[in-house]
Each structure stands twice: as C-alpha cells, then as structure tokens.
Amino acid sequence: MNAGKQPTLEVEDLRTHFFTKAGVVKAVDGVSFAVGQGEVLGLVGESGSGKSVTGFSILGLVDPPGRVVGGRILFKGEDLVPLGEDRMRALRGSRIAMIFQDPMMTLNPVLRVDTQMIEAILAHRKVSKAAAYDRARETLMRVGIASPDERLRSYPHQFSGGMRQRVAIAIALLNEPDLIIADEPTTALDVTIQAQILYEAQKLCRETGTALIWITHDLTVVAGLADRICVMYAGRDVEQGTVDQVLDHPLHPYTHGLIGSVPSRNRRGARLQQIPGMTPSLLNLAPGCAFRSRCPRATDRCEAEPTVTMRGDGRRVRCFNPVDADVSA
Amino acid sequence: MSTTTEHLQATAAAMPTAPRVESPLRRFTAAFFESRIATAAFGMLLLVVAIALFAPWLSPQDPYDLAVVDIMDSRMAPGEEAMAGFTFWLGSDGAGRDMLSAIFYGLRISLGVGVASGLIAMLIGMCIGLTAAYFGGRVDAVIMRIVDLQLSFPAILVALILVAILGKGVDKVIIALVTVQWAYYARTVRGSALVERSKEYIEAATCLALSHRRIVFRHLLPNCLPPMIVVVTLQTAHAISLEATLSFLGVGLPQTEPSLGLLISNGFEYMMSGKYWISFFPGLALLITIVSINLVGDQLRDVLNPRLER
Amino acid sequence: MSVFIIRRLLQSLGVIFVMSMIVFFGVNVVGNPVDILASDDMTQEQIQAFVARLGLDRPIYEQYWYFVLNALRGDLGNSFVFAEPALKLILQRLPATLELALASMFLSVVIGIPLGIYAGLRPEARSSKVIMASSILGFSLPTFWVGLMFIMVFAVMLGWLPSTGRGDTTELLGIQVSFLTWDGLQHLLLPAINLALFKMSLVIRLARAGTREVALQDYVKFARAKGLSARRVVLVHIMKNIMIPVVTVLGLELGGVIAFSVVTETVFAWPGIGKLLIDSIQLLDRPVVVAYLIITVLMFILINLVVDILYSVLDPRVRLKDVKS
C-alpha cells in the first residue's frame, strides 16, 4: 500500500445481516480491509463465506431482508453506509463499478449491447448519445473486442461467455471508476480465457490507477493477480497480508488448510490435505471462533470470540492459536 | 479423503435419531391450515356445501311449491314481512318467492351441476391423459393435438355452441361443461404421468411383467393425484361460473331448474326500477362460492406443489 | 420465417375446414327452423315453397356442399330472421365488438401491468397483498353479475353513466366508433371495464410473477450496479423482459375477450356480434350462428399468427432461432 496516501476504500468492521423468518443470518460479521490506488486485493473464501455480500454492501446493493447493521465503508474518506440512495446511485457505475460472476446472466437478454453500454454512460454524464456511443466503442476495443460496431448492434445471446464477460468489464470501465469490485468474474470461463482476462485486468489497474477487489474462492487466481489477500471465513476476515506473506506463511489454521488443499506441482504424489467438515450454517451461529469445529488447533479458548492480532508488517490474523505460535514457542 | 468418509458415515449414523417425518396427510393438513385466509375459505366452502345439501330443511319456504308462494308478496324489499308471517330477509322476487330460500335451492342446483360436470370431466380426462402418457408415440400425438385444439378455443364459446346445438336442460349443460373441461384434466394427468413414467419404479414394475392395467392404476395414477386435486377444485369453480353465465344468457338451464345464474337473470328486469336484491343476493352467493373454492384451490396448489417448497 | 408462416397458414386452413364441418352439421341438427319462421296461417304449399327457397328440403350433405361453395365466394347464407346476408350482418356489428374488446384489453394492460409490477417489486407490502387479493376476486367474479352491479350502481343509483347501447358514434377510417365522442365514451366505459376485469386479474398475476422472477436476475442487479435510476431499471430492464409472456398470453386471450364479449354485450345491450349470436341461437337463425363461428375462427387464427410474429419481435432469442431454421 502506498503509505501516507489515503486508501481508495477502507472497510472497517462491516456487518451485514439478513433478517429472515428462520432467524438472523450474519452473512458478514466483522470484516475490515483497505485497498489503495492501483492495488489489487484478493478477497478469498469458500462459497457462503460472505465475500459477495461484502461486495454488494460496498455498492449499497444489499436487498431486504438484508441490511448493513454496523461498521463503516470509507470511500476516499467518505462513509458510504449512511449515504442516501441518490448519492449512492451517483457513485455506482461511476466511481465504483462491479463485475459479476456469471457473464451469461449479467447482460439483459432483450436489450442490445449498445443500449446497455450507452445507458451506463448517460446515467452519469451529460453527453450526447453519439459521444456515448463513441465512448462505448472505444472501451470495447480496449478490452480486446474486434469490430466493436458490429458487436454493439448485437444482442448478448449472440456472444460467447468470454466475450460477454469482456463486455461486462467494458461496462465497468466506461466511466473510469476509482474502484472495481470483481465477483469471481472468471469462474465461469475457460482456463485460457480466464488467463487473458486476468492479465488484462491487472494491466488496466496498473495503467489507470484503479483499485481492484477481486473476489474469488480460487487461491491460484489470487496468487498471480493480487497484491494483498484478505481471507474470509463464515462472515469474518480471518487473515490478511501481502500475497507472499499469506501464501508462504499462512497464520490462520483455515488459510493453512486452504493452501494445503490446492494441488501443486511441487508436491506431486503427496496426499492433498483436506479441511474436515463443512462450512457452518450462518443462521444463528454460535458465539466463538466459527472455525473451531474443523480446526486442528482449536482449544477451549476458542469458545470465545477471537480478536484480531496486528502483526508488525501490516498483517492481521483473527486467531488465538495461529500457525506460527508453535514455532515461536 | 478418509476424514470426509468418516464424516459422511457419522452423518448417516445420526440420521435415524433425527425426529421422524410425520405422515404425508398430517403434514399436508398442517401446511394447508397455516394460511388463515385458506382456513376461512375452507370453512366458508363447508358452509356453502352444507346449505346446498340441507336446503329443504334450512329454507323458510319451499320457493317452488305454488301452494306456499303468494303473488301478493312479490318484490318485497329485504326485511319486509310475508303474508304468511315470516320475514323476507333478502326480499322476494317477482313471483313472491323468498329470495333466501330460492338462493338455498339455487346453490343446490349450481353446485350439483358444477361438481357433477367436474367429476365426469375428470374421469374422462384422466383416462384419456393416462392413455396418452402410457402408450406415448402416435396415440399421444393425436390425443394431445385434439387437446390443444380444444384448449385454443375459449370455454365460453365452445359451451355456447354446444348448448346452441343441444338445447336447454341439465344433462345438456353438463355435457357442454364436460366437453369444455376434459382437456385440462387430460393435459394435467398426461404431464405428471410422463414425469412419473420416466422414474425407475415404473421401469421396475414393467420388468416384473405387471399388467398394463395394474401399472397404470396402482402405480401411475396415485402419483398423478396431487396436481389433479388442484385442477378439480379450480375447474369446478370455473364450471359453476360457466353454468351461471349460460343460464343468465338464457341458453343454459331451463326455468324449472332455477340455478343461481337463472335467479340473477330473472332479477335483471327489476334492476332498472331499483329492486336490486333479486339479482344482487344470488350473485353474492355465487361469488362467495366461487371465491372460497378458488382460495382453497390456490392454497392446495401452493401446498401440493413441491417446486414452491417454502 | 416465411416457411414457418406458410406452414402455419396451411394448418389454419385445416382447422377452418374441420370447424366449418362440425359447426354446420352441429347447428343443422338443432330443432326445425321452419316451425319457428313459418307463421301459423301459412298453407302447406306456402310452407313448402318457403322451405324450398331456403334450401331446407335438400339432404344435409348437399346443403353443406352448397354452403362451402358459397362460403368461398363470401356468401355464408341469408339470415332467416332478417332476410339479409348473414356475413353482412356479422360484419356490420363486428366493429362494435372489436372496439369493446380492444378497449377492455387496453384497460387491462394499462391498469394491470403497473399494479402487477408494483406487487412483484414489493411482495411483502400490504398494498401488494391487497392487489393480489383483488386479482383473485377478479378471477372469481362472474362477468355478467358484475355488469349488472355496474348498471345498478352507476346507472340506476348514481345516474352517472348510461347503461345500454353505444351512444353517439363517429366515423373513423370508414368504421363507426364510439370512443371519439363524449357520449360514446361514456357508453363504452362500463362495458369495457366489465369485460376487462378478468383479463386485468390475469395481467396482474403474470406481471407480478414475471417481475418477481426477473427482479432476482443478475442482469437487474448489474443494471443497478451501473448506477441506473430505479425508474430505468424497472421501466426498461424489468418491463421489457416481462412483456414477452404478457404479450403472448394477452394476444392469445384477445380471442377469449371477443368470445366473452357475448356476455357483456348481452348485459349492456351493446350492438355487437355477441348479442347477435345469442339472439340468433334463441331464434334458431342458423346461417347467422354459422357465419359468426366462421368469422370468429378466422379471427382466432389471424390473432395467433400475429402473436407469433410479435413474440419474435419482442424476444431477440426467438428471432435468431427462426433465421437459422
């Protein structure tokens, strides 16, 4: 992170709960992270760990029965949580953009691509339709789409998945946002296309200084892309640090297990580690560390809520018995 | 790997100790009466059926016994007293009949015609639908073609033509209503039977060389019942409404079978002079009947449809 | 696409043929029109001349054969009652029925879609529950009874609106229409609302179900993430998607509205083909009944064809499939 400079986005102890008939689902229950200009943050976790809800919370797109119940979301110093819908709308798509997981579902099937791109520009800028069209065309070329004029006149179903995701990315870039939240944008794509898109995303961030939050469950994606990693488990951030720190020396037992379960060329032949058990239900979750039932290092202390420990080098971990505790002991 | 297997085994072992699932009927009743509106509608429907069944004992007057009806009592407003001493709670009609009694008797006819045509249509539709689903191929194609053709014409039009051809009468109206409805049943049964047919237990039954009839009636049919129950309720409401419409138009039941539709039609001429009750109250009775059947049907659909598992 | 249309047209011709046969033979089994039309003081010779003039003495298949030949020339026989060509009678009254049907379709869409979308966007709100309850009521209300109640309340008790007839008409493109004069509009209002109630309930349910489904789609959330106004998200992104099922169903229901206008026309004495049909059925005026049915079947087929084409205009995915096939 660029020290001294104000980060583009700072999330502090965010809590987003869903008030369902069956009870309160604490989808996000204490998450803090920051991401600066030109920086890529990997938000990693299993499905249901609250990473997507975190993304939607930042954009103010949590629908009832869900609601942000606590914490602050500082975008360039301004708290977004108490902001009204009008102000939020002005920020969405303009200063903060989002890319969704399934490119097959993110474009409206009955509207032409040009309509869907131009409306995104006209929602935020007072320009002519022709100018907006030119901007859309230019942006499509930038994400590597050849013959943009023809593409603009097409409907989404005439595109392949990878092409649609490029269009979605182009839409996110239209208004040159300061922050892009990408929610597993490559999960649904072929590996080769995934690699292209990752490369281009990284390049764009470096060039434009856009901050990027890349939400994924795939550690290998983050390894090549992100500057920093924030690992989430059951609605909480359990560990944060730079990519090298976290991947080479994970502190939280969950991160440790996660890394152990990724197949690697270096450990060919060795038995893959598994994390026993399943992600706990977030409905009426018992207090204490949510990971303790699956944790090999759990002790009686873990019945209480673990606090975040700050390490000197910008690392954070939420655990009573971090992995390196033995080493130091 | 081993840890997962152990975990699964542990889960499996824990299963039998979990609370046992109650009987389907119990669960169904509980789910049905969860909605207050549906419960009220069900109660209302019971009341309507009871009135229809016991009309002769509940009515203050036998409205079709000429010895009792007094022409001097004609067009009395609700609440006025009859020559014979009882009160016309809902007024009287042009011939001096007590409207309340006429409505009770009318309900009998309306419900009777609706239920009879619904049940006959169900039997016919069910047989045809099962035949289509079980034999498939060309049989299925021909039957479904006819069903589609039938359903592409509005029920009211088909019914009008039929009564135009057949003439008035209870039996003729029932024939018209059955003709209009059978296709819905056939399509529903075929749909669910096709789903069931592709399941393995039917294949197993076929392998056991069970007879066609046994497979169809003992295996296929019971599994098609839930959607049928829903169609029966909603179609019966539809049939009652259609009969009333035909009778109102003067092409349905004859004057000797005064259903609610006919009562409303008879009151039409008095309406312009402000004597609203002759048409209003039979219509209200019709409305209450149809609404309660529809509400019960709606709730049945919600409860019986596994796709809407809440 | 054109292959598709030609195939559809051929199918339709088959349907018309089958229908004409069912209708003709069916209707001709009913009663004996001679008994009704020949007055009691006619002599036997007069009756026979009368029967011969109407062609009723020939075998029925022969009657059908002449009927088909004449039908192809646009001659569907003469009305026994009016002594005029049946087709002419039908065509004279068709505009009134079409005006009523289109007016009620218009009302059900203009009122039904906004209510349905509202109820779909806020399924838990009390107002939405009221809307849905009213739509169940709209399904259950017998059309003719509601018509009577309308007359009672608005014409008899309040005296606000007329209860029968079309009122003043003006000519529009050579057709007499009511909705352009104030008096005509007043006459049109009650019957149109009456006929619209059922379809309105249907539209509300379709629009609500569609909205609930579409609102959960990623592309709606993505549209919101683009910073579009709620208005644009609903009016463009949601509405354009729910219009596909709504238009399809409504198009197919237009035939139903025309058929159901029989009831409304009878209640409000609206001089359309529905009222003519009921009168003709009661008087056993067979040529008019047959002509009505033939014309209605033709309209149905035409409507279905138009709906199919409209459907492909609305949904680009269908259009592509057709081009490929």
Task: Describe the model.
The complex is a heterotrimer of chains A (329), B (310) and C (325). Chain A folds into two domains: 9-95 and 177-328, Rossmann fold (3-Layer(aba) Sandwich), CATH 3.40.50.300; 106-174, no CATH class. Chain A has twelve helices and twelve strands. Chain A has helices at 51-59, 85-91, 103-106, 113-122, 129-142, 148-152, 161-173, 191-208, 219-225, 243-248, 253-260, 325-328; strands at 9-20, 23-35, 40-44, 66-75, 78-79, 96-99, 179-183, 211-216, 228-233, 236-242, 308-310, 316-318. Chain B has a single domain, classed as MetI-like fold. Chain B is elongated, with a radius of gyration of 25 Å. Chain B has 310 residues and is an all-alpha fold. The model of chain B is unreliable at 1-20 (pLDDT under 50). Chain B has twelve helices and two strands; from the N terminus they run ααααββαααααααα. Chain C is mostly helical. Chain C has a domain at 86-143 and 196-324: MetI-like (MetI-like fold, Orthogonal Bundle). In chain C, 78% of the residues lie in helices and 2% in strands. In chain C, strand 1 and strand 2 (175-177) form a beta hairpin. Chain C starts with a helix and ends with a helix. Chains B and C meet through helix 7, helix 10, helix 11 and helix 12 of B and helix 1, helix 6, helix 7, helix 10 and helix 11 of C.
CATH domain topology of the largest domain in chain A: Rossmann fold
- Number of domain modules of chain B: 1
At the fourth level of CATH, the homologous superfamily of chain B is MetI-like
Q: Rg of chain A to the nearest angstrom?
A: 21 Å
Low-confidence stretches of chain B: 1-20
Give me the strand/helix succession of chain A.
EEEHEEHEHHHHHEHEHEEHHEEH
For the record, give the distance between the C-alpha atoms at the N and C termini of chain A, rounded to a whole number. 31 Å
Number of strands of chain A: 12
What percentage of the residues of chain A does DSSP assign to strands (E)? 15-25%
Using the alpha-carbon principal axes, give the shape of chain A: globular
CATH class of the largest domain in chain A: Alpha Beta
Q: How many DSSP H or I helices of chain B?
A: 12
The helix-strand sequence of chain B is HHHHEEHHHHHHHH
- Helical proportion of chain A, percent range: 25-40%
